[in-house]
Structure formats: C-alpha cells, structure tokens
Amino acid sequence: MTDNPRKIIIESITRMLSRREHAYHELLRKLSHKGFAIEDCVVVVEEFKQAGIQSDTRFAEMKLRAGIAKGQGPARFKAECQQFSIAEQCLEAAISETDADWFELAKQVRIKRFGSDVPQDAKEKFKQIRFLQYRGFYSDHIQYAFSDDEY
C-alpha cells in the first residue's frame, strides 16, 4: 500500500470515530463504499483496534444505551448488533454490565404507549404483546408488563 491511500484511510477512520463509535465491520464497509481496497483498509482498521481506538465492546455499550433510551429490549439490541457482526460475548458483557431493569422498562413502554389500564379484551392484549415483542422484550418481561404490581 502506498503512503497516500493509507493516510487518507487513517483520516477517514479518525473522522468517523470522532463522531461516534463504529463497529469493526461497519468501518470496513464504509471505507469500501468510499472506494478503498478492502485489504488496505483491514490493515489500518486492525491497527486502530489494537491501539484501543476502535472497540466493538464500546460500540455495543453505545447501542445498548441508545436502545434503552428508546425503550427497546435486549432481543432488539442483540438483533441490531448482529447486523454489525458483533461477537456474542461483547453483547452479553454489555447486557450484564448495564443496570437496566428490563421488566420495569417493558412496563414503562407499555404504559407510555397504551396507558396504565391492563386490557380486558384479548385482541387488545395481543396487540400490546406484539408491540412489546417488536420492541425486543422477552416473554417474561412482557408478562411482568401486564402485572398489577405497583408502578
């Protein structure tokens, strides 16, 4: 690789990472879309990874915080991160390190969308269940969201 494309790749990666965290494969995809040879990019992105500048773990933590703020559950977080080829252990580590109460979050999301009354109609209850499933909550979180426990 000549020095000039390497310098441009380094500048591009630095610009991208200065805005927000990026996953390893996301950086490679963006650089290849810019017209850089993938083999040239892999070398530079790997250097950034080894130096700790790029981290899939930090990317997963960022995605998790953003998802919690949007009212999304752990299943949705995992599905979105798998699109970026994040390792399963990074996902599990991010979930275990968070202090999110998935049960309460599911309940808050349901109440914000549909109100505090538990639906008596089966059709309405299934509608709310599908909504919470779409948001990425597991069945035990969804069951809790319909409980009468003090909010």
UniProtKB/TrEMBL annotation:
An annotated GO BP: regulation of DNA repair
Organism per entry: Alteromonas lipolytica
Cell compartment(s), UniProt: Cytoplasm
InterPro entries: RecX_HTH_2nd, RecX_HTH_3rd, Regulatory_RecX, WH-like_DNA-bd_sf
Top-rank taxon: Bacteria
GO cellular component, one term: cytoplasm
Protein family (similarity comment): Belongs to the RecX family.
Domain RecX second three-helical: 55-94
Protein name per the record: Regulatory protein RecX
Keywords from the UniProt entry: Cytoplasm
Cited Pfam families: RecX_HTH2, RecX_HTH3
RecX third three-helical domain sequence ranges: 100-145
